[in-house]
Design brief:
With 313 residues, the protein is of the alpha+beta class. Helix content is 26%, strand content 29%. The chain contains eight helices and 17 strands. A hairpin with a 3-residue loop joins β14 and β15.
Length: 313
């Protein structure tokens, strides 16, 4: 049985991180201020979580996240200089070194060139991995639900930037939409595609429930194909729910029985109000609650059907 990794309270200064093959203190992991990826948003990244289970700390869908990290690098012609196995081993090493029972993990690859030019062809790349204690992304909103505003900004599409890549620059789109929502008194934003269909949140995929069917925007809405999204679909189908992946009209959100976000950070977070319109009865619905319970069981090792999604530290 894997050894239990105990959590400890520590600031970032005490964390151990991995940079280009070496464990370092967070405060010692430094790059020049003119680093290309800082200036131009040319980095790629992943977000994954590890959870405390009875068998020890377990990273959720490690291989799937590493594979997407590699795909993002390929799309941007970035040379990671490490194999998938080496990256996975490094991620486990970082979690173990910080003795974290549960945490958020951030692998990040960037062009380590400190020049003004925008070109990055054949630029040297570096890989950074951090793991840190992390609670509920939306705080109390994870339980009671959050209020969202449909953004006046549209989701980027593959004719503009490769949406399949989890790239830093893509999130400028999310930041400006989130700022708009927060300035209007909402918790989060929902972006529509250029064709006017529902796409996703600032950093989350979205689901709605209608007539007990689970509905989520398809790839045609230029969404990021989330690992958590895929997990929710598989978990839902395993308990007999009908799942539809299709184009979703904006007004379908308003008339939904339930709605929720999902993502590594957000996990499952109910959406109870959109543009001032109450969703369902304005409280987290029964299917959202059920899926949240099942998801928690999966990530904490209580569901044998999905046991292969866990990598023990």
């Amino acid at each position: 049985m894997p050894a239990r990794v105990r959590s400890r309270a520590n600031g970032k200064g005490n964390l151990k991180v991995w940079l280009d093959g070496k464990l370092k203190k967070y405060s010692d992991a430094k790059v020049p201020i003119l680093t290309h990826s800082m200036q131009y948003g040319s980095g790629i990244f992943e977000g994954m979580r590890a959870y405390e289970t009875k068998g020890g700390t377990a990273i959720f869908r490690l291989d799937d996240h590493v594979q997407r990290f590699q795909r993002s690098a390929k799309i941007y012609s970035m040379r990671l200089n490490y194999t998938g196995k080496e990256l996975s081993k490094a991620i486990v090493q970082v979690v173990k070194a910080n003795r974290l029972a549960s945490c958020y993990i951030r692998p990040f690859a960037f062009y380590n060139r400190d020049s003004i030019g925008v070109g990055a062809w054949n630029a040297p790349t570096s890989v950074f991995i951090a793991a840190m204690p992390f609670g509920a992304y939306y705080g109390a909103g994870k339980e009671r639900g959050i209020r969202c505003k449909i953004s006046s900004w549209r989701r980027i599409n593959s004719g503009i930037l490769p949406v399949e890549a989890k790239a830093s620059g893509n999130y400028i789109n999310s930041i400006i939409a989130n700022n708009e929502a927060k300035a209007s008194g909402f918790d989060e934003t929902i972006l529509l595609s250029l064709d006017g269909y529902v796409a996703e949140g600032a950093a989350e995929n979205i689901f709605l429930v209608k007539y007990s069917h689970l509905i989520t925007p398809s790839a045609s809405a230029d969404i990021l194909m989330g690992v958590t999204r895929d997990s929710i679909i598989k978990i839902a189908e395993s308990i007999g729910l009908i799942v539809e992946e299709r184009e979703v009209h904006k007004e379908e959100l308003y008339s939904a029985d339930e709605a929720f976000f999902c993502g590594t950070a957000a996990e499952i977070t109910p959406v109870v109000n959109i543009d001032g319109i109450r969703i369902g009865n304005g409280k987290p619905g029964p299917i959202t609650k059920l899926l949240s319970q099942k998801y928690t069981e999966v990530v904490t090792g209580q569901n044998k059907e999905f046991a292969d999604w866990l990598t023990y530290v």
